[in-house]
């Protein structure tokens, strides 16, 4: 028998109410309960509490909107991305409604392929800690291009630039552009051990030690930035930018078939503007990266960069250098 924890009567009392021949008021005075309670149990055939669930449940999403959500889920789109994509066509959509729908359908968790250990959590830092990495774009018009990506750990503010080559000059130029783009002081930069970021070996071909400083590290020293490198063969150490690269590829080059290189570059630029200024991120309190950066600078004006920047103007420029 199911009885609510805060019920005024128990099963034995309810059975006595149903079998009693006395008046409702007399039974209520004897059991020290209300007349309405006596009336409720007098006309029940059992003594168990009924469910509080309403007979008809109204959902915020109709059947067509539910099918759209589940269709995106079948393509392994994350919860936040589903809300972000459908917000343009379903203005009343909410993250909680989408999550409850996925939970009812049993697809609230995406399978983690080849996951053997629990993912780590990044240590909290103030704005100014950049994760930098690059990836190769699809070859269009017979030319190869590399996209450099930087993401700030605290505000999730992203900058990307496309270069013809993945070399030392491109990495140095991208760091200068990061210094011009981010409105706060850059304190730390985390990269891998690629030859465009640092010397991989401490000895030259003749066995002599390398005494000169790498140009990328030299620029870091000039700008007052601490350069950190990941441990060899551990890309998960720089997992924030690795995941950001995966997000960029999933929403641009892996999703669309471009007819020209200019169309691809424009798609990357449109994604950058949308992510920085329009997409709300749950990890930073449901704000956009631009809102998180401006709110931080309002509360910490001492962290403002020496040269003011216009992020919107930089994002609107062509992304190929």
**N-end to C-end Cα span:** 73 Å
**What's the tally of helices?**
12
Q: CATH class of the largest domain, anyone?
A: Alpha Beta
The beta-strand count equals: 5
Taken as a percent bin, the fraction of beta residues is: 5-15%
CATH-assigned homologous superfamily of the largest domain:
Ribonuclease H-like superfamily/Ribonuclease H
Largest sheet: 5 strands, mixed
Helix-strand topology string: HHHHHHEEEHEHEHHHH
Radius of gyration: 30 Å
**Total tally of structural domains:** 3
Structural features, described:
There is one protein chain. Helices cover 39% and strands 9% of the residues. It has a five-stranded mixed beta sheet, sandwiched between helices. The chain has twelve helices and five strands. The model has no long low-confidence stretch (mean pLDDT 84). Helix 2 packs across helix 3 and helix 7 runs parallel beside helix 8 (215-223). It folds into three domains: 1-54; 63-105; 129-316, Ribonuclease H-like superfamily/Ribonuclease H (Nucleotidyltransferase, domain 5), CATH 3.30.420.10. By secondary structure, the protein is α/β, with parallel strands linked by helices. The protein is elongated and about 105 Å long.
């Amino acid at each position: 028998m199911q009885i609510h924890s805060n019920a005024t009567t128990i099963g034995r009392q309810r059975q006595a109410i149903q079998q009693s021949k006395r008046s409702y008021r007399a039974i209520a005075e004897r059991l020290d309960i209300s007349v309405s309670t006596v009336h409720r149990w007098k006309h029940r055939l059992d003594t168990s509490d009924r469910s509080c669930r309403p007979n008809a449940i109204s959902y915020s999403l109709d059947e067509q909107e539910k099918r759209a959500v589940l269709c995106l889920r079948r393509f392994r789109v994350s919860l936040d991305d589903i809300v972000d994509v459908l917000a343009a066509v379903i203005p009343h959509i909410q993250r909680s409604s989408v999550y409850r729908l996925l939970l009812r359908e049993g697809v609230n968790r995406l399978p983690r392929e080849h996951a053997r250990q629990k993912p780590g959590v990044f240590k909290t830092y103030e704005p100014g800690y950049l994760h930098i990495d690059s990836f190769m774009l699809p070859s269009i018009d017979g030319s190869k291009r590399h996209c450099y990506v930087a993401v700030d750990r605290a505000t999730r503010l992203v900058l990307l630039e496309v270069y013809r080559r993945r070399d030392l000059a491109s990495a140095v130029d991208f760091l200068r552009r990061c210094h011009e783009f981010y409105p706060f002081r850059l304190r730390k930069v985390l990269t891998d051990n690629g030859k465009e970021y640092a010397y991989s070996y401490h000895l030259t071909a003749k066995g002599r030690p390398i005494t000169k400083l790498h140009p990328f590290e030299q620029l870091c020293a000039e700008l007052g930035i601490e350069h950190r490198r990941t441990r060899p063969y551990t890309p998960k150490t720089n997992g924030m930018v690795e995941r950001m690269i995966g997000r960029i590829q999933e929403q641009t080059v892996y999703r669309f078939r471009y007819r020209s290189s200019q169309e691809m570059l424009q798609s990357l630029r449109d994604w950058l503007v949308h992510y920085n200024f329009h997409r709300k991120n749950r990890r930073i309190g449901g704000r956009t990266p631009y809102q998180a950066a401006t709110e931080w600078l309002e509360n910490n004006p001492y962290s403002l960069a020496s040269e003011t920047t216009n992020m919107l103007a930089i994002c609107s420029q062509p992304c190929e250098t």
